[in-house]
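LAB NOTEBOOK - FOLDING QUEUE
OPERATOR: T.R.
BATCH SIZE: 2
PURPOSE: Compare the predicted C-alpha cell outputs for two unrelated chains run back to back under identical settings.
PRIORITY: normal
REVIEWER: second-year student, initials M.K.

ITEM 1
FIELD SEQUENCE / FIELD STRUCTURE:
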Amino acid sequence: MIEDVVVEPMTEEFIVWRCLQGGPLSCKTIDLWTETSTMPWERYRDRNMPLLRKLIQTYGTCAIVARDGEKVVGQLRFYPKVVRAMHGGYLCLQQGPPEGPADGFADNDFPELTAIEDKTLSVNCLMTGSSRRAENPYQRKGIGTRMAEALIQWAGAKGWEHIEADALEELPLVYDVTPGYKFWEKLRFHIADRYPHPVLQGQDEWLSKLEEQAKAVGISPERVRDRIIMRLDLV
C-alpha cells in the first residue's frame, strides 16, 4: 500500500549508491547485477560508497529516500551547491565523469556547513519507482512530493538557506525523467533562471516527442530545450 511508504533521510545503515532505474533496491539486491551488464558496477560502487558516506557524515545526509518495507522505491538526491561546484559538473552516480563523480572525489575536504557562505542545496535527481519498467506503481502517487517536503523540512532544520532544483517544461513526457517546473512551484519554489539546456540541443526520438507534446498544448518547441532553475528561499 502506498500509505505504508516511509519517507526519511538516507543514513549509513543503508547507503543507496545506485539509482532505481532497474527498479526498487534493498540490502539484498543493491549489489546484484547481471553478468551481461555493460555498466562498471563494481567501479561505481567503490567510487560512490566513500563519497556518499562522507557526505552523510559531514552534512547529515545527501538524499531523502522512500521505503516500502525493505525496498527503497524513491529517492531525492541533493548536494551542497559548493560541493557540486568543486566537482565542476553533475554528480550522477551511474555515470563516469564529468557527468558522474571523478574517482577519488571523496578524498577532497568538504567544508562544514558553518564555513559555507552560500548555504544552498542543489537537487541532483528525483525518482520514484523506475521509468524503465512498463508498470510503475509508485509514480504519480504523491511520493515525490512527500520526499521534496521532507527535504525542505530537513534543510530548514539544519540551517540551509536555499534549495535549487533543475526542471523542464510541464509536459507528460518530462515526468518520465524529472519533475516539471510546476511540481516545484506547488512547493513554493520560484523560477530563478532559464536558459538553453546544454544536453538538450541535439535531436533524438525523445526530444522529437517532447516537441510534439509541446505543440499540442500551445508551447513553443524551443522552450522544451530549456533548463529551468527553481529556487526556494528558506530564510
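ITEM 2
FIELD SEQUENCE / FIELD STRUCTURE:
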Amino acid sequence: MGVLVDKKLDMSGQCALTVQKANHILGCIKRSMASRSREGILPLCSAVMRPHLESCFQLWSPQHRTDMDLLEAVQRRATKMVRGLEHLSREERLRELGLFSLQKRRLCEHLIGAFEYLKGAYKKDGDKLLSRPCCDRTRGNGFKLKEGRFRLDIKKTYFAMRVVKLWHMLPREVVDAPSLETFKVILDGALSNLV
C-alpha cells in the first residue's frame, strides 16, 4: 500500500511524505495555471492534490497535532491560490469554497465506514472489529459500541478506537438512520455542531 510506519508504529513519516507529494503537485498547479479563478483551481486541487492527502487515511490517520497541522497547511495553501479569497481567514475561505477541513472529512469517512460495518457491509473482512456491549442501558444515542482496553497507548489511535469515541458523541437520529444516504445527510449537520 505504500504506507510508511516506524518501529514505534508512528505515522509521522507517512504524513511528511504525503505533505511533500501534495506540495509538489500544488506547485505544479500554481506554475501551470495562468488563471487563479475558482473554476480553474478548485477542480484541479480536488482531483489531483487532495487524493494524495486522503489516500489510505483509514490506515495511517494522523495521530499528532503537528501532523494534522501539516496536512491542513497544504489545503490552506491551495485555497489561498484562488483569486479574491487571499484576505479571508482559513474557515471563511473553506466556507466560501464549500469545502470542509481535512480533519472533518476524515471524521466523516471514519463514521461512514463504521456505519457500513455495523449494517453488515464488511462481514467477511473482520469479525468483531466494532461490537455492542452486552447491556442495553446506555445514555445518549442508545447504540453504544464496546470500547477495548489496551496496555499500549498506540492502540488508542487505531481505527476502531477512534470511531468508538466519535460514535458515542453522535445523536440518536444519526446512528438510527435507515440508509447510508440518510446517514450521510444527517451526519453533516451533526458534525457541524461537534467540530
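REVIEWER COMMENT (ITEM 2): The mean pLDDT is 77.
FOLLOW-UP: none requested
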